[in-house]
Amino acid sequence: MSETVLQIEGLEKSFGALRATCDVSLDVAHGEIHALIGPNGAGKTTLIRQIYGSETSDAGVVKLRGEVMNGLNVPQRVARGIGRSFQISNVLMDFTVLQNAILAEQARRGESFRFFRPAFDDQALIEGAGVMLDRVGLGYRATTPVADLAHGERRLLELALALAAEPALLLLDEPMAGAGSEETQHMIEIIDGLRSRAGILLIEHDMDAVFRLADRVTVLVEGEIIASGAPDVISADKAVREAYLGSDDHA
Amino acid sequence: MDALRIFLDGANRNRTLFVLLVGFALFPIYTGIADLPFWNDLAMRIMLLGLAAMGLNLVLGYGGMVSFGHAAFVGVGAYCVGISQYYGLFNGWIHILMALGACGALGLVIGYLALRTSGIYFIMITLAFAQMLFFLFVSLEQFGGDDGMSIDRAEFIIIDLWEPLRLYYLIWAALALSSVLLMFIVRSRFGVVLQAIRSNESRVEAMGLAPLPFKITGYVISAMICGLAGALFASWQEYVSPDIMHWTRSGELMIIIILGGLGTLSGPLLGAVVFLLLEEILPEVMHVVAPSYAENWMIVFGPILIAVVLFARGGLMGLVHQMTGRRR
């Protein structure tokens, strides 16, 4: 059995009377794609935010490779190996694709408090950034301003940036959101190819993508895990079908 | 060699700035021949306001931090000269070092406290700190209180300032040096992070960088440049009063930056040139065109500023780039 990358135990979060996360425990192993599905408002993104550190937890523990993450902020967690792609593309719109990647590269190297040499002309950074973009097949768009990218390309850049720091755990929040079918196929292939790099926790509404990629599926409804297991077990689960998949939703 | 190459590349990308700097360097030759010493005085005022605006632009334009209290740093820089002289210290180099030190320390404290907030709260906290300092100096009777204090021309060991042109070139040197320094900073890794924070702070965090240290460092550098401008301002005006740190002065700096072009190297200086020239020329023009309204020249001034901000995206530098067909 490969190493457990992420382990969360008894995670809780309430917003006033609304319990967004109720006693959630799950784990992700290295090389595994663990899909998190559930209807809108089930608390999937809240859970991702709690793992990522942009939301504090009321109770429970988040561990990355055995190290407790509670109390660490976002940059600290990223530095320890958590990468995240956002539901709504979260890239630097004023910059070009390459400039986005250069910034990620200098951040990865921990060499950002330098005041002299121009960052965007730095050969070492440009090379590292190029590798980053090639990983998702975006190298040919390097000089394009992000504002001019197609939606699918922006999703790819988002993914490239999430991978920049070579995270042990990758949190993907609806990477296919808004993508066309061809783009979705491309994205599925790329995510499939990431298995060897990290453990992946994937939120996705595209059931086709989920069942093609996931090694394990966890179903979240109203903040609670109602089922967790292999994809075929989950798709056969009666409670899951009623709560989420619907009788005709998954062809 | 490397530094020279980076410098030349940067200068080539910021031609407007360097044209203006060369222009200011040569200007006294013209005023000397044409016998118009008054214009030297105006040029010094433009350079001083341009320098302060450049300092503010590092946080406002590049860092996206809307600091509404930067005149306080200009004022503290100026009072460093006045207070030093009050205690018998007349060395101008020491005045400048004190202004840099005091504004750096003050910028660190204010930045550390204020940068924990953002948006409207940040604007209000920086304004509150500036008002606090304003009223502090109003209440300091021994330093002139409301009336301010007069200042002797400082003594510079190498450059004796009794001759007006020497002060002119000291101000020019400070402006040129700060320009080059800022040119290196904004293109460096630090500067790039600062601009990324302006563009999208949560993306910077997602890259594993904590934004606060970068913001505070930018804030301190910015405060120190404004302090330098303030110290030279005191020497130029031979007088300092709390008026220099009134909140409308902070607003003036912001208007100059927005007029010239937010987040550009050349913008603040170009903005200062146009702003102060308009302020100088408009009353004269009004006097000829509509004598009975000459005192109300601001009626024309305001709409001109609004028109530039509305129609020239990116201020005057936006216009310059449009005309030269270059992307920023």
Taking all residues together, what is the mean pLDDT of chain B?
92
Chain pair sharing the greatest interface: A-B, 39 and 31 residues
Mean pLDDT metric of chain A: 91
How much beta of chain A, percentage-wise? 25-35%
- Structural class based on helices, strands and sheet pairing of chain B: mainly alpha
Percent helix among the residues of chain A? Answer: 25-40%
* Main sheet summary of chain B: 2 strands, antiparallel
CATH class of the largest domain in chain A: Alpha Beta
Question: How would you describe the overall organization of this protein?
Answer:
The complex is a heterodimer of chains A (251) and B (328). Chain A has 251 residues and is of the alpha/beta class. Chain A folds into 2 domains: 1-81 and 166-251, P-loop containing nucleotide triphosphate hydrolases (Rossmann fold); 90-164, no CATH class. In chain A, 35% of the residues lie in helices and 25% in strands. In chain A, the strands form 2 sheets. Chain A has a 6-stranded mixed sheet with strand order 6-7-8-3-9-10, sandwiched between helices. A 4-stranded antiparallel sheet of chain A has the order 2-1-4-5, with helices on one face. The longest helix of chain A has 13 residues, at 97-109. Chain A is globular. The two termini of chain A are 32 Å apart. The mean pLDDT of chain A is 91. With 328 residues, chain B is mostly helical. Chain B has a single domain (2-324), classed as ABC transporter involved in vitamin B12 uptake, BtuC (Orthogonal Bundle), CATH 1.10.3470. Chain B has helices at residues 2-13, 15-34, 37-62, 71-86, 92-114, 119-139, 164-187, 189-199, 201-206, 211-237, 247-260, 267-289, 298-311, 315-324, and strands at residues 149-150, 239-240. Chain B has a two-stranded antiparallel sheet with strand order 1-2. In chain B, helix 4 (71-86) packs parallel to helix 6 (119-139). The radius of gyration of chain B is 20 Å and the shape is globular. At the A-B interface, helix 2 and helix 3 of A face helix 1, helix 7, helix 8, helix 9 and helix 10 of B.
